[in-house]
Amino acid sequence: MIMLTLIQFSYSQCHHYFLKQFHKLIALLKEKGDPSVY
User: Which of 8, 19, 20, 29 could form a disulfide with 34, with the two C-beta atoms 3.0–4.6 Å apart?
Assistant: First the structure.
């Protein structure tokens, strides 16, 4: 049971990290004025 919670926790941490990276990428593309973002 504890193991499952640990996996869920690490998964949510990874998910959060990737979301942050993804938003950074979007911001970078918007800065460059990439029309494909909008």
Answer: 29
The pLDDT tens digits for 4-33 are: 888 888 888 888 899 999 999 989 888 887
Question: In this structure, which long-range contacts are made by residues 20-24, counting pairs with CB atoms below 8 Å and at least 24 apart in sequence?
Answer: none
Amino acid at 10: S
Of 24, 22, 26, the residue nearest 14 (C-alpha): 22
pLDDT for 34 beyond 70: no
- What whole-number distance in Å separates Cα of residue 26 and Cα of residue 9? 26
User: For residue 22, what pLDDT is reported?
Assistant: 92
